[in-house]
Amino acid sequence: MQSDRPLLEIKNLKTYFYLDEGVVRAVDDVSFEMDRGRVLGVVGESGCGKSVLARSIMRIVRPPGRSFEGEIIYNRNTENGARGDSVDLLDLSPDGTEMRNIRGSEITMVFQEPMVSFSPVHTVGAQIIEGILLHQQVTKEEARETAIEILRRVGIPDPDRIVDEYPFNLSGGMRQRCMIAMALSCNPTLLIADEPTTALDVTTQAQILELMAELQEDFGMAMMLITHNLGVVAQMAEEMIVMYLGKIVERADINTLFSDPKHPYTQELLKSIPQLSRSRQTERLAAISGNVPSPFVRPSGCPFHPRCPQFMEGVCDVLEPPQVSVGVNHTASCLLYADAPAIDEESQ
Amino acid sequence: MTNHNDSSPILSVKDLKVYFPIVSGIWRKTRGYVRAVDDLSFQLREGETLGLVGESGCGKTTAGRAILRAVEPTAGEILFRMRDDSVVSTTEASEEELTLIRQEMQLIFQDPFASLNPRMTVFDVVADPLKVNHLARGSDLEDQVSEMLMRVGLSPAYMRRYPHAFSGGQRQRVGIARSLVMNPRLVIADEPVSALDVSVQAQILNLMQDLQDEFNLTYLFISHDLSVVQYIAHRVVVMYVGKIVEIAETEKLFTEPKHPYTQALLSSVPVPNPAVRARGQALTGEVANPADPPSGCYFHPRCPFAKDICRTEEPQLTEIEEGQFAKCHFAGELDLPGVPS
Amino acid sequence: MASQTTETTAITAEEREYIASQWTLVWRRFLRHRLAVAATIGIALFYLIAVFCEFFAIHDPYAQNAQRAFVPPQRIHFFDGMKPTWPYANGLLRERNPVTLKPEYAPDESKRFRVKLFARGHEYELFGIFDTNIHLLGLDTDEDPIPMYLFGSDRLGRDVFSRLMYATRISMSIGLIGVALSLFLGVLLGGISGYRGGIADISIQRFIEFIRSIPTIPLWLGLAAAVPQEWTQIQIYFAITIIISLLGWTTLAREVRGRFLALRSEDFVMAARLYGTSELRIIFRHMIPSFMSHIIATTTLAVPAIIIAETALSFLGLGLRPPTISWGTLLFEAQNLNAISNAPWLMVPAPFVLLAILAFNFMGDGLRDAADPYSGQ
Question: Which DSSP symbol is given to B158?
Fold first, then answer.
């Protein structure tokens, strides 16, 4: 069924923000691929560029931000699953018809705060229906039926009634369900979820995560899950990217990344989080020293070098680490592995 | 466990209630009450860290603020044992007495961006409590402030900077310095790490533990993050819709919880280990509305073990095992697994 | 002890940024707003004129001369043929049109008077203390009155340019004094309303709503008409200022109240309260500095409204009255069609008003954008 080309190929993508204070390299030379039907976790701290990456793919980066270099190649499948056409999203006009047709139907997004993603003056149903009408050739009645059906599917109790509710009448969890319903209403091939559960309570978060995992399997779409929560990504993703200051520092399948992290940042990050366990942790947490630098004063060389416990003077602060292969489907950008074979675009 | 002074508690809260009236109309008629905190009772031993856990809206923040009288309690009694071993009631204290009590009882805020006045230098922020209370002046003031800054891991060379020069973690250190500069004995920490980056949380948690050892501080650590609480707290109080549902030693609570809600919280935390994937554990339903709580046990609409009695009769907080209290009709009978292994 | 952190200390350019106070940050942000900076320079010029209007004036603004009625604006020559030269003006020839019998003026090509800077002219008192007769511009001639009418003259032969200079003083100062009064009332009542809350808040808010619900123009008209005829110019001036500002404080009061309400629940204010800061110190040390810049911006935006109000009232003949010279009373002269068709230069104050209003608005916009240097960081 599946064609041999990945769903999304991102090559050397750069999205910078040109501010009065200086240039913020929010996404800096990022390359990766996304396969069809897989869940990719993108993990990083605030300011690492994970949200901007998502917005770059959706082409909704607002000035003064601009994606100005690289490629975002989106490989469609035809109806019967054979290889379809390919399009570089970066070549499309962000507000043009073609991008608008892709955005919201083939590639959709779920945001952290569903309250701001919904218009407060329209009912939830009206907004889902509008999306369906925009992308599909159906009548208004059919669209409403679809909307109710999809609301039922995301676990909204009494969807016939909720469809006519305003977003502010719903709880945070319910709103996020509606948001997911809207994102799924056009059967996307890729769902980008940007911190979908960060604003929610733990018990609600568990519900939403469970729902998303289930829907992902049922709908078979690819999912890009952006989060700062290592627990969430461990529970949901099959592959994982770790970002730091606009760069991908490590990439591997989820089990490898958690059991055998190669990049010092990933290693330290995993050590520093307190974990629930049956026996209480009594020794100190291994904290990463220092702070995430201000985006305007980016360290030279490897951006992590001022905080890195394995910092090599004269190397890490001078050379930009290349992306190298450190295992099967496992890459890291670290000068500790400078001898490992470099990744060029074709061999990945 | 660390050794506590078990003689008499530093803080004891009895039947604390904080109700907020719901007013409407131009005549501001009271239509009902949001029971933010309802019948809260617990004790804090000197030198311990008590975790106060619950989801948003469960009243944990309000409880913390009511203890400091930053929010007026509706009813109940809060007794605080001062440095000189005299026991004062914060609920009945006058403004002057409160000023003295608050020198020994301080708050650490969640949001390090909102909690520092952006128009004051770090020096002014940390020095202000000393100045306001006439505790130090001149070069002594300067010395105390730089000493405090060093203790929280900031260079006194940064003293003349404004908060905008600092990252979240550093600002939180400044906030901690301000809370500790008057040498308090009880610190109420309201989600002190939840607004911080993952890589910085551990620093602040370690710092708080170091400071606790150094100054023999007692913490009331309010958090929604169970893994953080497990790491830092000696005992844990779990709240649901304004009420305590369970109190226990940390180890007990995480391995042998007695209340189904505690269990639900524990199994809801996404484990940062892809090998342990829990599915089908999530609770159904939503957190009850504190303005219109359900009958009987507030948790019954979501509880997988709910029986008829739960819908009609409110359970009492009873001691199930030594030092472990739960508010559940079936607390003794249920066999709950605790943290998934 | 905390063993981690403590970064290396280095005094760099960033350090300056880190130790920059609120006002430095506001100033820097403001400087980025080019239009606002230009507007500020414009406003400074206006006030320079207002302060030294006698010096900028060429003629005595009250001096009438029947022989010089309706002189059109005069040309200053910078070229002699094609050759640049020291600016000069020609003399004035007055003739009566034989058909319409109206006086007509033509340049007297035979006379050339060089423009003089810091020329001596009519006597005046600078700041009411120094007697002097130095003026910025004059002509190298002994003719009296000197034949220099940059913006022409009115029906009584008074120099419009000089009158405009004097009008700037009155109109711009009404804006300033009026806004100061509004500010005082606004901060006081808004502060009480926002800080005390409860009954005080409700009654002040209802009062503001009541005032705002009254249509302004008729109210102004009514109040202005109540000003006794026999009052002196100064009395009328202050009466009008008070009338205008009495109605203008409501916006400011609401702004201040809003800020107080927002700040009352700020964490840093609660922190201050919890370590024992007195209410007064909270207000002056924490709250007022936090909204000072916003108040300045709002105040700046309130000035043009007051200037317009004065101009409008005086234009209708209900505000200031001649012989007081303000933009409004000058425009009053240009009220009838006859005047406009015969002497369109009497409209010259209008672009001045426009410029001043725009300048205040642009400056206010710039200030408002710069007022919170901590947003968006």
Answer: G
Question: Across the interface, do B132 and C281 touch by the CB < 8 Å criterion?
Answer: yes
* pLDDT tens track, chain C, 377 positions: 333 333 444 456 666 777 777 788 888 888 888 888 999 999 999 899 888 888 888 888 887 877 777 888 888 888 877 888 888 888 777 788 788 777 788 777 777 788 878 888 778 877 777 788 888 887 777 777 777 788 888 888 888 888 888 888 888 888 888 888 888 888 888 888 888 878 888 899 999 998 888 887 787 778 778 888 788 878 888 888 888 887 778 888 888 898 888 888 889 999 999 998 888 898 888 888 888 888 888 888 888 888 888 888 888 877 777 788 888 888 888 877 777 787 888 888 888 889 998 998 899 888 888 877 776 54
pLDDT digits (tens, 9 = 90+) for A224-256: 999 999 999 999 999 999 999 999 999 999 999
* Contact call for A289 and C5, based on CB within 8 A: yes
C338 touches chain B (CB under 8 A): no
* Beta sheet of B75-81, edge-to-edge order: B29-44, B11-24, B75-81, B87-89
Token pair, residue B6, equals 């078990």
Distance from CA of B190 to the nearest CA of C (A): 12
Best mutation target among A289, A291, A313, A317 (most C Cβ atoms within 10 Å) is A289
Q: Which residue of B has its CA nearest to A256?
A: B274
Contact C4 A287 (CB under 8 A): yes
Backbone angles phi, psi at A204, to 5 degrees: -70, -40
Q: Estimate to the nearest angstrom the gap between the alpha carbon of C363 and the chain centroid.
A: 12
The nearest alpha carbon in chain A to B228 belongs to A274
- pLDDT of A256-297, one tens digit each? 999 999 999 999 999 888 888 877 777 788 888 888 887 777
Whether residue B270 and residue A213 make contact (CB cut-off 8 A), yes or no, is no
Structure tokens at C235: 């009395």
**pTM of the entire structure?**
0.83
Task: Answer whether B153 sits within 8 Å of C5, measured CB to CB.
Answer: yes
Question: Looking at chain A, which residue has its C-alpha nearest residue B194?
Answer: A198
C9/B157 touch (CB, cutoff 8 Å), yes or no:
yes
Query: Which residues in chain C have Cβ-Cβ distances shorter than 8 Å to B128?
Result: 272, 275, 277, 285
Query: Closest Cα of chain A to C15: distance in Å?
Result: 12
Q: Which of C4, C14, C32 sits opposite A289 (nearest CB)?
A: C4
Size of interface A-C (CB pairs under 8 A): 9
Whether the CB-CB separation of B80 and B185 falls below 8 Å is answered with no
What is the number of CB-based contacts under 8 A between chain B and chain C? 102
Rounded CA-CA distance C186/C246 in Å is 10
Rounded to whole angstroms, how far apart are CA atoms B241 and B244?
A: 8
Task: Give dist(CA C31, CA A15) in Å, integer.
Answer: 28
DSSP per-residue letters across A67-112: EEEEEEEEEEE-TTSSEEEEEEGGGS-TTSHHHHHHBTTTEEEE-S
Dihedral sign computed on CA atoms, order C365, C369, C372, C373: negative
Contacts 24+ apart (CB under 8 A), A310-317: A310/A264, A310/A336, A312/A336
Find where tokens 């599917």 sit: A153
Q: How far apart are CA B184 and CA B176, in angstroms?
A: 11
Question: Å from B111 to nearest chain A CA?
Answer: 15
Residues of A whose CB is below 8 A from B169? 291
The token duo for A311 is 């910092």
The C-alpha of B203 sits at a distance from chain A's nearest C-alpha, in angstroms, of: 5
d(CA A190, CA A74): 10
Neighbours of C88 (CB within 10 A): 16
Structural contact between residues A225 and A193, judged by C-beta atoms closer than 8 angstroms = yes
